[in-house]
Amino acid sequence: MRQVQGGGNRAMGFGKIRSRITNTEDNPIKFEDVQGIDESREELEEIVDFLKDPGKFERLGGEIPRGVLLMGEPGTGKTLLAKAIAGEAAVPFFSISGSDFVEMFVGVGASRVRDMFAQGKKHAPCIIFIDEIDAVGRSRGAGLGGGNDEREQTLNQLLVEMDGFEVNEGIIVVAATNRPDVLDHALLRPGRFDRHVVVPSPDIKGRENILKTHSKKIELDKKVSLNKIARGTPGFTGADLANLVNEAALWAARQDKETVDNDDFEYARDRVMMGAERRSLLISDEEKETTAYHEVGHALVAASIEEVDPVHKVSIIPRGRALGVTMLLPEEDRHSHNRRSLLGQITMTMGGRAAEHLVFKRFTTGASDDLKRATELARKMVCQWGMSEKLGPLTYTEDAGHVFLGRDLQQHTEFSNESMRMIDEEVLEILNSSYERAKSILKTYRKALESLALTLLEKETIDGENVLQVMEEFAPKTKK
Known about the structure:
The protein is of the alpha/beta class. It has helices at about 1-10, 40-50, 55-60, 80-90, 110-120, 150-165, 185-190, 205-215, 225-230, 240-255, 260-275, 285-305, 340-360, 370-385, 405-410, 415-445, 445-460, 465-475; strands at about 20, 65-70, 95, 125-130, 170-175, 195-200, 310-315, 325-330, 460-465.
């Protein structure tokens, strides 16, 4: 009987939520530790201000948002913002993962939602943080078989609890997700998640501030320019930059250095972006020569086109799955592109294949990734961005982003076969003209191509300044 009774007590415990309560003194992270996402941080600072001084906001009849949804790509700092709220707010902070509600027993998820809000009411005012809420908040009816599954019961209970308590009870729900597109619309409406805070990837100034924050823990060389590192890491999230600083410190320690210098950061960036060096990979002289001409072809075309970012360095050291790489260094962050710059990018991508054909009169599989990227870019120009004069300013495809089974299973084609044929012709026209442009540039700088390829075979890595110097040396002379 005692064994049965003990088992029964354990079974009754399934409906209890395993939340972690954090007090202010237990969490050292503050808002000042969150860099690069200032606008997102300011919106959450207002929530903390309300909890500390509600009378200031209620004086004019305003009401605090009941829920705040943090949306952003992985690594942008959503959970870090939640930790900062926990560190700043002088109220109890409950942190739960969305998967904590899911259990093999039917009804347990809904019971845990009720238990979570019951605990919140006991400790009100408080904040409840649900990480990865898409585990329980996905759109209802998305399953192929329909039915009333466990996850939908959990979501229904969450909807009721969020819109069922009074504002003066002081429970604020903060949730984070990187898949806002799959969340149920009833969860996103005002009254539940009133505020949707987008947590973006940081801009160049934000990346520099993030690098400064993470660099406090390591010994930096005086010559290190964090601004230059930030400029060369477009698209990096906060997690990527933290990893970059850590990799640089580890590499410097492995080299028995006293400080972390620019070379260490250069190595770390290459490792993070392209993978570790594969110096042990045996490559024949013929393949190495082909790779050298291929990469120099990219570099020369990029340096010849104004609308393409400047060349930073060229290398034929194998990294990851690539035998070589040409790295460009953006002068500024770009948030949109015009037709001229996109054609320049496609032309630069075609530079490697054009160099191979110009020198060796043959094609290799080394250009497969280049062709894939060029084709994708050209097709987007025609189908999504309306940059084709023949087809006009129309969108010929739906950009669904991530595929969601319940919504994207059936694809509806809204254009004719004739339009599809015209799309293929336009894409091919863009690719062919870009290829011919790249080939023309390399014919003009044929001597520079030969010289740089020989230098690259000897040194394995050359920088952008070398490319520009050789181009000036072998530049075609203009007729007077």
